[in-house]
Specification:
The complex is a heterodimer of chains A (409) and B (261).
Chain A lengths: L19 H18 L3 H6 L5 H9 L18 H14 L1 H20 L2 H12 L5 E4 L15 E4 L5 E12 L6 E7 L8 E7 L5 E3 L13 E12 L3 E2 L5 H37 L1 E2 L2 E2 L4 H29 L5 H26 L10 H11 L6 H12 L19
Parallel strand pairs in A: 1-4
Antiparallel strand pairs in A: 2-3, 3-7, 4-5, 5-8, 6-7, 9-10
Chain B lengths: L1 E5 L2 E3 L7 E2 L4 E2 L6 E3 L1 H17 L2 E7 L5 H10 L3 E5 L9 H13 L5 E5 L10 H9 L3 E11 L4 E7 L4 E7 L2 E5 L11 H7 L4 E4 L1 H4 L36 H11 L4
Parallel strand pairs in B: 1-6, 1-8, 6-7, 7-13, 8-12, 9-12
Antiparallel strand pairs in B: 2-5, 3-4, 9-10, 10-11
The chains are: A alpha+beta (409), B alpha/beta (261).
The structure holds flavin-adenine dinucleotide (FAD) (2 copies).
The site of one flavin-adenine dinucleotide (FAD) has 32 residues of chain B, from helix 1, strand 6, helix 3, strand 8 and helix 4.
Chain lengths: 409, 261
Amino acid sequence: MAAGEPVAVHRVLERDLPSAEAVELLSLVTEIARDQMAPRVTDDERHARFPRDVFDVLGRSGLFGLPYPEQYGGAGQPYQVYLQVLEELSRTWLAVGLGLSVHTLACFPLASFGTTEQRQEWLPHMLDGTRLGAYALSEAHSGSDAAALSTRAVADPAGEGYTVTGAKSWITHGGYADFYTVMARTSDEGPRGISAFLVEAGTEGLSAAAPERKMGMSASPTAQLLLDGVRVPARRRIGAEGQGFPIALAGLDTGRLGIAACAVGLAQAGLDAAVGWARSRRQFGRRIIDNEGLGFQLADMAASVASARATYLDAARRRDRGLRFSTEAAVAKLIATDAAMSVTSSAVGVFGGYGYVEDYPVERYLREAKVLQIVEGTNQVQRLVIARGLAGSADPQPAPANGFGSAAG
Amino acid sequence: MKIIVCVKQVPDTWAEKRLDPATSRLDRASGDAVLNELDEYAVEEALRIAEATAGSVTVVTMGPERAAEALRKTLQMGADAAVHLLDERLAGSDAVGTSYALATLLAAREFDLVLLGSESTDARTSLLPAMLAERLGLPQMTFAAQVEVDPVARTVRIHRQTEAGYDVVEGSMPAVVSVVEKINEPRYPSFKGIMAAKKKPLETVSLADAGIDPEQVGGDHAWSAVVDFAQRPPRGAGVVVSDDGQAAHQLADFLAAEKLL
Ligand SMILES: Cc1cc2nc3c(=O)[nH]c(=O)nc-3n(C[C@H](O)[C@H](O)[C@H](O)COP(=O)(O)OP(=O)(O)OC[C@H]3O[C@@H](n4cnc5c(N)ncnc54)[C@H](O)[C@@H]3O)c2cc1C
Ligand SMILES: Cc1cc2nc3c(=O)[nH]c(=O)nc-3n(C[C@H](O)[C@H](O)[C@H](O)COP(=O)(O)OP(=O)(O)OC[C@H]3O[C@@H](n4cnc5c(N)ncnc54)[C@H](O)[C@@H]3O)c2cc1C
């Protein structure tokens, strides 16, 4: 199409990183994104093809356990580094960055709440890059109100295990994952009646429906997970019976940081594309970027991206230092995903008519941004978390009542 | 088996290359520099052979200070050790000088196999493998699309890529082998590799250390010199062929005229 000049190339971002190895890690990630992801993202998204082989490359490069301890095969990296890896991946391909975030979230309950024996037995296999995880909390009737979930885990009289029955909705990697961290009800005591389980793919009774047909991020499979009398041995329960909901919430605090980082990557991609276009597209005899009105719009976009990045990195650095970060994570998720929405929308505008067609990636960015405002707690739910903090009731112990607005992964 | 891989750091293939009008040399300071792509294949092949034979891989480069980055990348991929031939007097060496310097360095070391890429992406002479083999007096086995070693019989057999297909060439070890892209799929470094590389030896060697005669290297002693150069003219607009039933003929005529058919 007669579009004028090609869109500017992907700039290498100069990042604020805490160590030489982190700089090398980011440069490895940038290289993989450029060589293995960029050439195929458009096509795979268009045809809703899940790029499992790209995850294999990430896995072989040691990216499946970045924030977890080296003793279990993780990379022992601080969150501020792990999250910038997610950002860089999402800048090229959101489905991959978000997928890695979901995998890391799926490992969180075992890594943080498992016994030493459980960790020694399973964690190395979950982090070694060969097996992909999924996180199953949401159900058709319990999304924001995740504590209302109804999937049941019934203990055998002998105490050897559980029989799990129910249906999980919206499960990223559903049907493609190698293991699932599943929240199920072990008693009727509301949020105190939920327990966490580690379920292997291929267990009898576990199946996935056909992936949902989504408005964006089509290369990331999202499916209903059906549990029909799935037998789970007692030693695969993570944490105590009834501890599942606080575990899920702790996971989401961290998972939200992942979504915020993905959102910044996507917003950066929108900004890069818009700037590239505005520097080369000419109207009225000059580059469109030389019109102050448009230049200021780009400046606002750049300011949104930079402030969103600063916000999630602030929360991450608090987490790395062992400070409270739950409110900050909710703020970061809210700010970053709203930034992604507005920046990608502006990017379409900067491209004019060319922004509205599939020949350029910006319309896809816009479609992708929307999901980030919904997953791992809608942005209203983030406000709820922030407001609870302001009201002085942020402590998730004891477990919050129904309607706390925990929100799912 | 002890394997030595020669690698070169080159300007990023994605970046625009520029000759410096003052020196007629490639402007290496501007823009990113990367490990020559074909050399990644050579390193990968060396790692595979070493893994299969419980051997070791040492990577060698001759180049300016920042060429150490390329060495570090090979260590991250899994090479055991690296040697950086670094000396200001090497600047401007042509292929004759480069091959002399590398051959002198290698001659003092123990190895069973030397692997190289078959061509650099910057100077692209493709001369080094042959010159190095000649200077070392070793079998020259170039353009390998497949390499098999027999450590017991001490032989190496390659599929030498030709325009028509391939030749099977066998030689005794030690030997000099250059590889083509088809040979394998190079691995990326891993995070563990990045961490491990910090502890691996990276030795910097000067002309004196390596016993290299300064009178035979560097721009002043080069046998060839760049006399003049010009920018490639910008690409023309091209011809748009719209299909009115004759497009196929027009395309065929065009290809024939360009001697592409
Ligand atoms: C692509 C995709 C991938 C997903 N992946 C996963 C996954 O891997 N694992 C998983 O467990 N889940 C996953 N989810 C589910 C996701 O977390 C939920 O969709 C989300 O938590 C919202 O729940 P809901 O869809 O039931 O919406 P609802 O909870 O029904 O919300 C509907 C609307 O009501 C608002 N609302 C609800 N309660 C309140 C309140 N108290 N105050 C103000 N407003 C409120 C919400 O903000 C929203 O605007 C995924 C969803 C999508 C779309
Ligand atoms: C017209 C012209 C002018 C030049 N002028 C200059 C100049 O002024 N200054 C200057 O510095 N260079 C100059 N060069 C480049 C110089 O001649 C070559 O870089 C050098 O001799 C190596 O040759 P090559 O890059 O063509 O390697 P090739 O023979 O194409 O490379 C084959 C393989 O040899 C190995 N190899 C190549 N170079 C090295 C190395 N340095 N260390 C270790 N292994 C290596 C790699 O495995 C590589 O894949 C010039 C080249 C040309 C063609």
